[in-house]
Amino acid sequence: MRNFLRSYPSEAKLLVVLLILCTLLAFLTPDFLTLVNLTSLLNNNSVNVIWAVGLLVVLIAGGIDISFAVAASVVQYICVYVFAAIGGGNWAIGLIVAGGLGMSLGLINAFLIHQFRIISIVVTISTFNAFFGLLMFITSGRFLYNLPSWWSKAVYLWEKETPQGWADIRLPVAVMAVCMVATWFLIRHTTTGRQLYAFGDNPEGARRAGISIGLMQAIAFGWCGMMAGIAGLMQANITKEVVPMALIGRELDVLAAVVLGGARLGGGRGSILGCFLGVALVAVTQNGLNLLGVSPYAFKMVVGAIILLAISTSNLDLARLVTPRRKGRE
Amino acid sequence: MTSAPAIHLRHISKVFGGVKALQDVDFDVGMGEVHCLAGENGCGKSTLIKIITGVYQPEPGAEIEIFGQRYAQITPTVARKAGIAVIWQDLALFAEMTVAENIAFEAVLGNRPRRVRHAEMRRDATAALDRLGVHLDLDARLGTLPIAERQMVAIARALVGEARLIFMDEPTASLTQTETDALLSVVRTLSAQGVTVVFVSHRLAEVLEIANRVTVLRDGRLVGVYLAEGMTQTRLTELMTGKTFDQHVAAQDTAASEPVLEVQGLTRKGEFRDISFALRRGEVLGLTGLIGAGRTELAHVLFGMTRPDAGTVTLDGRPVRFRSNRDAVAAGIAYVSEDRLALGLIQPQSISDNAVLAVLKKITGGAGLLSDDRQEGLVAHWVRELGVKIGKPGDAMNTLSGGNQQKLVLAKWLATQPKVLILDCPTVGVDVGARAGIFRIVRDLAAQGLGILLISDEVTEVHFNADRILHMAGGRIVGEYDPRQTRVEELEAAVYA
């Protein structure tokens, strides 16, 4: 317990806040704590979590990515044409193509950042505009509905009838779980992952230790791009259509959730658990406001306030409340 | 020499944008030797280390031999594989990672991904710390450790890599005397085990105590290689600076002048308690003690950055109570902080902008806008007054040497026309030649009637430059000395005991 608090202070705090919020909502509205509501929350936010774990890797490595949501849109469009060209495809091919395309777009970011030594926020704002502009120009903003049936059909992994209706878990949740585990394994249990943390923490120290900077950028942005591509594939599965402006703007929601989850904008800190909790807190808040009948126009305001509150109390040290203070140290 | 040398370098030169950092330097270190690299700031010590460890490439014509093997080119990876480890002055550690991960960092290096062996890393970290005789919490985040413990982590990290040759760049700059002694004994142990250590330090006493031989560099050139035995601090200083210095006690009797700052029963819980003293006009009052004695914390209270729990501060006979350091500056107190790089100066900004930072109000012309003329005048005045060597006032701060940077910090605060000047370790990272210059300025300021509180953990520095010395330990003042009646050895024995 004490170790958890010390190693994951932001995550622990977030968990406490989330539990309090859930308890409150459970008392305030009968619809919140139902299987139907909770599973639909999970289904609808799986895409955000996939993006979040991708972005986390970039943040850990000390960078930032604004372009991933738009990149996901680009991947969706290319996917439609690729699948048409190869005569349909299936989920396995779909995941490989979407992941691969996303990774290529991420590698473009990494290349620009490393080759021209431009900071990542500038590069990804540029590619955000370039990707989106190109997409709108080529597609003229057209919606696509002619997705292959395997892609647009919901895949139910589990379902159950409850008094409130059918509760179910769909494919995006499973993909989310795999992405979370894969990213967790990468950052916690591979040498590459530890190098990413080190590089984000102290780039000069990492360079002196012989860590390849270019490789770090490529892995971080490549991974983020791959997750973005997979998230794009899942998003189209949920909405059953491909719309060029559907995802623009989502990058800031995801970024806020990841930072809420304890990732540091300066690099070197952040966890998968934090990502999940960060997305969950924003989602539960919106869901709660919705169930309570609050105007949707107030959602953004409340979410903004929560993020401000979380960031401004991030120096509050929970571990200190549990650990007796060591005395006489300097 | 009988065995092959650990390092054998010939004709090492390095040019940075036209500036010759190293010119045709030769450098030899024997196997298992403790070798010291000495020289003033900017003499090329760091550049030389960076060349040996592959961070920089030397100019063509260099010959590099490490443990008897010739290398055409050294990269950081090649250097590490050859058994070379460096403990950088800035430690190059990872603040967000745990102690164990920092120490056993080697285990996660390499471009091909592998599984991290957490248990193995912990075991290696424990073993390295045991060799140092240090106990640290392996799971603590490095950033939560005090600087002295981080240093231990950096040293332990070098030991994990099975280093045969360890460079230590100013390893003791931030250690207490006890920790320094512990470090020096570790260095001896390593040396006895056949590990070669190259030691870079400003503290000459330490250098002569630990080293077998000393290589002296000056202005990027090799001055010579000398046996440590029989070398004196004075001689070494002369070799490093090319000038002669004689150190003598500068203390004067200031008992007759009236007090400017009086402190009575000052206490801040957990930091210091019951501190009482008077600082007289024109006096240099030394305040010494080990790191952690509460010196800096006391300075922070006097400068209004933190508030005392009990006690009074009287300035010019009037009791004062500062709500912030702005109040303290307005009342006439100036504080030159210990951490010049982080707190005293804004490194990338220009020399001129740094110098006027604390007195922006004074250089505003009509309409409250900054006046370039007044700024120029003020900067020119202080640069002349303190003898700061600068290129142009518009140059970035980090183009200056440590000594000149410190003079500029002084200028910045003197421009506020203080009555009391608090100097917190003013010579950290400042080389011998520039130190003398800084203390000459301190003397002049005292002669002009300023009360100066000189805080330092270097007893010799306080002994030679203060009029009166207070010794602080465990948050209290435990002794007062007159440098004219106390020998430096007695004072050292009292403080470092």
Give the SSE string of chain A: HHHHHHHEEHHHHHHHH
Q: How would a textbook summarize the main sheet of chain A?
A: 2 strands, antiparallel
- What is the helix content of chain B? 25-40%
Radius of gyration of chain A: 20 Å
Total beta-strand segments of chain A: 2
Structural class of chain B: alpha/beta
The pair of chains with the biggest contact is: A-B, 32 and 35 residues
CATH domain class name of chain A: Mainly Alpha
Which bin fits the share of residues in helices of chain A? over 70%
Strand order, biggest sheet of chain A?
1-2
General form of chain A: globular
What is the name of the CATH architecture of chain A?
Orthogonal Bundle
Percent in strands of chain B: 15-25%
| Quaternary structure classification | heterodimer
Largest sheet of chain B: 6 strands, mixed
> Which homologous superfamily in CATH is the superfamily of the largest domain in chain B?
P-loop containing nucleotide triphosphate hydrolases
- The 3D shape of chain B can be described as globular
Domain module tally of chain A: 1
Q: Number of helical runs of chain A?
A: 15
CATH class designation of the largest domain in chain B: Alpha Beta
